[in-house]
Input
Amino acid sequence: MIRVGIAGIGFMGMVHYLTYRKIRGVKVAAICEKNFPERLAGDWRAIKGNFGPQGQKMDLSGITKYAEFDAMLADPNLDLIDICLPPAAHAAMTIAALKAGKHVVCEKPIALKPSDATRMVDAARRAGKLLSIGQVLSFFPQYQYAYEVAQSGKFGRLLGGQFKRMISDPLWMRDFYDPEKCGGPMLDLHIHDAHFIRLMFGMPKAVQSVGTMRGQVVERFSTQFLFDPPRMVTAVCGVIGQQGRPFTQGFEIYFEKATLLFDYAALAKVDDAVTPLTVLSDDGKVTRPKLGSADPMEGFLGELGDVVRAVQTGKPSPRLDGQLARDAVVLCQKQTESVVRGRAVKV
Ligand SMILES: NC(=O)c1ccc[n+]([C@@H]2O[C@H](COP(=O)([O-])OP(=O)(O)OC[C@H]3O[C@@H](n4cnc5c(N)ncnc54)[C@H](O)[C@@H]3O)[C@@H](O)[C@H]2O)c1
Output
């Protein structure tokens, strides 16, 4: 039985806790929360995110509770530390946990700066422990389908894609535009697509981005990822000026023998706008593959299932690899640089 300690009982800490309960071979043995003592006592009613259930009163008997992270690290019963803390804390806490001899899974983004991400990857190598980064997107069914057909070669060569992630200004996120705390749309939102693009296409030679700044972070942007032709990859991301569309994501992905389409927008007060995953194939057919549940909670089941399997087998999950997550942060940094400088930037 793998015994996990979750650090940070906020939205993601709750999502991870609920998810581990559905995975065999793992048990949440400890939780750590510094700022909300009532959450250690089981009152999670104030926790709410943009998907998943609203927090409830929890029965946490049998779970050790810590207010201090270092005290949890000293717990000899824990094999895996799950870091659901704000991004600015990821590097220091991850490195401390690895040094304490624990495996680590850390939420996205791995870090706010590539140099911190590199230190985390190096620390895992030195400690001989697994570092998994919770880049969940490729476990969502539409993205997982695209990943699997790219891996299998079912539709021939991968030629390119367009990726989208645009939201109404998240007024409820206090630190959203703070480069030292969250990193704005680039590191909070686009990091998902940057990681997926890196996973599917590899590292581009350069990026060319145009966009608008809000303080020190990019507010809204469009990027061309420059690969050798014929590969063409673009992405748009950021916040729009109006409320009313709290979340949207989508893609077109081009293979030699098929194009995949997907679009999802959560809209206020009217039904969500959805183009379910659709495959246009060479023979003129338009099909909608049967996919697993679209509930985002299922994506976390896939992701954390991979983490647990990695710890059980000692084999890292290819999709949750630390270096890959670091590359995604590098891509974000280069895109910001490209917006600021007004020219293409080598990767
Ligand atoms: N994959 C996704 O879809 C997704 C969605 C939301 C958030 N996230 C990521 O998850 C991470 C956490 O985000 P969140 O929305 O859960 O934030 P949150 O603010 O809801 O939760 C963070 C929790 O950590 C606690 N905390 C802070 N410092 C601490 C410390 N030193 N010791 C113990 N507890 C401490 C806070 O009190 C808070 O309860 C971020 O990296 C975020 O980017 C990922």
